[in-house]
Amino acid sequence: MREPDAARSSAATPRSGKFTRRRPSALRRHGLASALMLAGILLALLPLLEHAGPGLPQVGNGMAVAKSDRTRRAAEPCPGGQTERVNGGKLCSHGPDPAPPGVDIAQRATPARRAKSSANRAACRDDGVSGPRVQTLYVYSAEGVSAYERYLASFQTWADAADRIFLESARATGGDRQVRFVTGPDCRIDVRPVAVSAASLNDFWATVQAISEQGHNRTDRKYLMFVDATRYCGIASVVGDDRPGSSNANNRGPSYARVDAGCWASRTAVAHELMHTMGSVQNSAPNTSRGFHCIDTFDVMCYSDAPYYPTMIQRCSNEFMTRFDCGADDYYNAAPRAGSYLATHWNAANNVFLYGVEQQPPVAHASLTARPQRARAKRAITIELRGFAPGEQTTVRWQAAGVVRTVTASAAGAASLRFAVPAKTKRGRSTIVATGSAGSRATTTVQVKGRR
Ligand SMILES: [Zn+2]
Q1: Which of 49, 98, 131, 439 has CB atoms 3.0–4.6 Å from 14's, for a disulfide?
Q2: Cα 9 to ligand 1 centre (Å)
Q3: How far is the CA of 124 from the centre of ligand 1 (A)?
């Protein structure tokens, strides 16, 4: 197996990869871009001064600059402006990640050899589908040929290997964590084939859009996509939300990790993208790159990334080429010290998409809206439901009149229905309540106008 990923950790210019090779030559051609990159490097040096140790130079005005930098950071949740709205939620991408050394992203990985034992397998518990889960997908062009049968066992093996990094890294900090994969009746990771248009494979958000349209946009799912293309090594969505606690936006789906064919066999590439979807690395972390990565060498999530290309700091041994969070202080610690950054900010080791994390009762995000919000008796209004559980059977009741309709929420947790304002409804505010079979509940009111 191709392993360690020194380029990711130590070099600003990755040594291989179709996408990343393009960057330096493009910059040479465009003077403005070079100037911008230089500015980026200068900007990136400033925050380092905040962490400067005794042996490193100090600059008198460092604090003032750092303060204005913090303000700017807060106003820019997605560095580089790579933002997309998916299902009403705001997702960032951190830009494509470079390939590990020795990996040619233009060359599809050869299938994995059959694993000798089940020692490295992802956890298979409960029914394998309930609660928050990572759904693994094989995404390919509908105009091409599916390699699903040929690669199914390999995808399972490669996802198992990535899961091992979650487990070993958690154990090193005093806890057990494993990815809550959707698993099948055979107790192996469930991998579903999804055919999309060839064009939608050329761009991350287009791929996300294409699979969402096929129902892969559930709030209780994160999606690990093995994509049969050679556009990227890997890329993923992450929400800039560093608040601790279960209401953190990274504790819900949908979110998306994409690994292309050249990097399928790299367990660090798969683990890296999946870790982004768990909410790592927040741009407020002590050793942040400010591009959802970190600056510790070595670490699966750290490299000198866009848009600031920060200078890396050597803090950990080679062991961390296949381990998360060198120093256990930036994004993943099963038992952070009280008062430390990870005890007071988002810690991916608390993500409910991991085994070992106490599952919260489903949080109600359900909402109802009525259009129009003012209507006369007998007039039709439209009630929109959002944020219900996928497929949830929902009863919608016009309370005062006792009129009831039932509706089933779509895979996206949405539904809409038409209601005629009941004939004898009194003037004034009238309440409509929706109650779902999975426990979702939402209300809205309609202002009923008198007869003319
Ligand atoms: Zn990344």
Answers
A1: 98
A2: 11
A3: 27
DSSP state of 363: P
Give the bridge partners for 405, in sequence order.
396
Burial (0-12, 13-18, 19+ Cβ within 10 Å), 17: buried
Residues 126, 54: Cα–Cα separation, whole Å:
52
Tokens 């890296």 correspond to: 272
What class does CATH assign to 367-449?
Answer: mainly beta
Residue carrying the six token digits 């489903």: 362
Per-position pLDDT tens, the chain of length 452: 333 333 333 322 232 332 333 333 333 333 333 333 333 332 222 222 222 222 222 222 222 222 223 333 333 566 655 566 554 456 777 668 899 888 888 899 999 987 666 667 999 998 999 999 999 999 999 999 999 999 999 999 999 999 999 999 999 999 999 999 999 999 999 999 999 999 999 999 999 999 999 999 999 999 999 999 999 999 999 999 999 999 999 999 999 999 999 999 999 999 999 999 999 999 999 999 999 999 998 999 999 998 899 999 999 999 999 999 999 999 999 999 999 999 999 999 999 999 999 886 655 577 888 888 888 888 888 988 888 777 777 888 887 777 788 888 887 788 888 888 888 788 888 888 888 766 677 888 888 887 65
Residues 6+ apart with CB under 8 A from 72: none
Handedness of CA 202, 203, 205, 208 (dihedral sign): positive
296, 127 contact by CB (below 8 A)? no
CA of 281 to the centre of ligand 1 (A): 9
Which residue ranges make up each domain of the chain? Answer: 6-355, 367-449
117 alpha carbon to ligand 1 midpoint, in Å?
30
d(CA 209, CA 203): 10
Of 135, 346, 385, the C-alpha closest to 244 is 346
Q: 245 C-alpha to center of ligand 1: Å?
A: 23
Helix, coil or strand: residue 366: coil
CA of residue 272 to ligand 1 center, whole Å: 6
Indicate the length of the chain as a whole number.
452
Handedness of CA 8, 14, 20, 26 (dihedral sign): positive
Q: How far is the CA of 165 from the centre of ligand 1 (A)?
A: 15
Cα R_g (the chain), whole angstroms? 24
Query: Cα of 388 to ligand 1 centre, how many Å?
Result: 31
Neighbours of ion ligand 1 (CB under 5 A): 94, 97
